[in-house]
TrEMBL record:
This is histidine kinase. SMART domains: HATPase_c, PAC, PAS. Keywords: Coiled coil, Isomerase, Kinase, Phosphoprotein, Transferase. Residues 367-394 form a coiled coil. It comes from Haloarcula hispanica N601.
Length: 549
């Protein structure tokens, strides 16, 4: 640089700036200060210079003493950036000393806490005026404050949710994160606290909890079918209704879980809703993850979300409603049909008996026959009434509580019905199986099935075999095998469709009671013709296996 002028070394603008400073120093006879930066090969560097005139009064020389302040400048820039970020941060920021005094607070902290900055920095973090509470309204103890925990452990604390009472009496939910600033020796020199307004998020969580609770109380689940991908997304209610950890099947996978007799109607309803946009509603049966068959009512409508066509709907468990409807229907038919028929027999034979008693050709045998028929019809009415009363008592019990040892149940059924039907041979296969459920309900179901097996048998000495075995799916199957004629087709059709009408109806309450009770126990009933050993009929009851504590 020696022998060169300023304009040979520096840019014109910078050389002019330097020359002006030199002139000022010479004319004033006083030291001047200047900060500048140079673009050098290794990057921009910052300098601070003191320009001092030297020599006699008429000197034209100056001493230019420059100091490299690049690191200091960058620290200042970084500090300025930090302060700027601190102020414009969307998160409320508060800095706390180890003594507990609050040093700084930004604008967002003022908004969230509802206080002016001077009031915030005039407090300690642990003063009771902050009014910090847990969700249940219990005050948060000082030991649980995030700042306290950071000062004690030196570790950050994230996601501490609480609410505060503002000066105007309103509540505001906050999510606090606290982190330490450590010194060279590892001690906590400051604690930085980030405050975020969680009020809306908390309200959404409460709304979601309300929706989930509503789903549970109403036995309702929500679902959405993506018509482009064919995938279904279900709510928590769907998982609970079907007993599944997740519910995200394809449409075809979902349809396969419904009863074969209901599957076609459900598919048609979905296709019609997709094509016409008309809302759909129907009832269908479906098995849960526990292999329990339940009735569900499905409603859906076509909608558009995010530009994509969807089918959005709800599912409600209507099993109890369906059972109540079926019970009323069956009881009504029994009252109208069975009781009326028996009363007709009683009235008819009473009239004939009266005529016989007044006849000059009175016959003791004829009168006895009328009396026997009246007595038999009366006994059947009494039996029907007793069976209905027994069923009413059982159906109102808590059927899923308790543990039942099947060996004792099967033995008791064999002994009781063996006395009533000495012509029958009832065999029990030894078992150690235990099922979860109500003993009275299981007794009643097995009693009904064995009685029906004997009633429908066309053999003079029918044989019934009772067995129980555990299945790999965690159930116990109880089989009632008979070598006689099977259950009439009319009865089987009624139980398969679970409907009654003037053309198709069951003869009595028994098989209906079995169906209702086994479902309430969380099981199922199936009837197989020619499935028993040597032919005949096999009725199988599936019960949940008792779980060991």
């Amino acid at each position: 640089m020696l022998g060169s002028d300023l304009w040979d070394v520096f840019s014109t603008v910078q050389a002019d700036q330097f020359y002006t400073v030199i002139e000022d120093a010479l004319q004033a006879g006083e030291q001047q200060h200047i900060e500048y930066h140079l673009s050098l090969d290794d990057g921009d560097r910052y300098f601070e210079a003191r320009v001092t005139p030297v020599g006699s009064d008429d000197t034209e020389h100056v001493l230019w003493l420059a100091e490299d302040i690049t690191q200091r400048k960058r620290r200042e820039e970084k500090q300025a950036l930090i302060e700027r970020v601190f102020e414009i941060s969307p998160v409320g920021l508060v800095v706390v000393e180890p003594s507990g005094k609050i040093l700084f607070a930004n604008d967002r902290a003022e908004d969230l806490l509802g206080l002016e900055r001077g009031t915030i920095t005039g407090r300690r973090y642990d003063q009771p005026e902050w009014n910090i509470f847990y969700e249940d309204g219990t005050p948060v103890p000082e030991a649980e404050y995030p700042v306290t925990r950071v000062l004690e452990s030196g570790e950050p604390v994230f996601g501490f949710e609480h609410w505060i009472e503002l000066a105007d009496g309103t509540e505001r939910w906050l999510s606090s994160n606290a982190a330490p600033i450590l010194g060279d020796d590892g001690t906590v020199e400051r604690v930085v606290v980030g405050l975020d307004d969680a009020t809306r998020l908390k309200q959404r969580e409460e709304h979601l909890e309300w929706l989930i609770g509503t789903e549970m109380l109403a036995d309702v689940g929500g679902w959405e079918l993506d018509l482009e991908t064919g995938l279904i997304e279900g709510t928590a209610g769907m998982k609970r209704l079907y007993g599944l950890p997740e519910y995200n099947p394809t449409l075809e996978e979902a349809l396969e879980q419904y009863h074969p007799n209901d599957r076609a109607a459900l598919r048609d309803a979905i296709e019609t809703c997709c094509e016409t946009g008309e809302p759909m509603e129907l009832e269908a049966r479906r098995k849960t993850a526990e292999e329990t068959e339940r009735w569900f009512r499905l409603r859906a409508e076509k909608t558009v979300r995010g530009g994509e066509p969807k089918l959005r709907g709800i599912v409600r468990d209507i099993t109890q409603d369906k059972e109540r409807e079926q019970r009323l229907m069956v009881m009504s038919r029994i009252l109208r049909h069975n009781i009326r028929n028996k009363l007709t027999v009683i009235r008819g034979n009473s009239r004939l008996l009266k005529e016989e008693l007044g006849s000059p050709e009175f016959s003791v045998d004829a009168a006895s026959g009328h009396i026997d028929r009246i007595e038999n019809a009366s006994k059947e009415l009494d039996s029907l009434a007793e069976r209905a009363r027994t069923f009413d008592r059982v159906i109102e019990r808590d059927l899923r509580s308790g543990t039942v040892h099947l060996r004792q149940v099967l033995t008791d059924v064999r002994d009781d019905l063996g006395e009533q039907h000495p012509e029958a041979a009832i065999e029990v296969t030894p078992t150690d199986a235990e099922v979860a459920g109500d003993r009275m309900a299981i007794d009643l179901m097995l009693e009904i099935l064995v009685e029906n097996a004997l009633e429908y048998s066309d053999l003079p000495s029918p044989r019934v075999k009772l067995t129980a075995e555990e299945t790999p799916s965690g159930q116990v199957t109880v089989s009632v095998d008979t070598d006689g004629s099977g259950i009439p087709d009319m009865e089987q059709k009624v139980l398969a469709s679970e409907t009654e009408g003037p053309v198709v109806h069951s003869r009595g309450l028994g098989l209906w009671a079995v169906t209702w009770l086994v479902r309430r126990l969380g099981g199922s009933v199936t009837i197989d013709e020619d499935a028993a050993d040597g032919g005949g009929t096999r009725v199988r009851l599936a019960f949940p296996l008792a779980r060991s504590e």
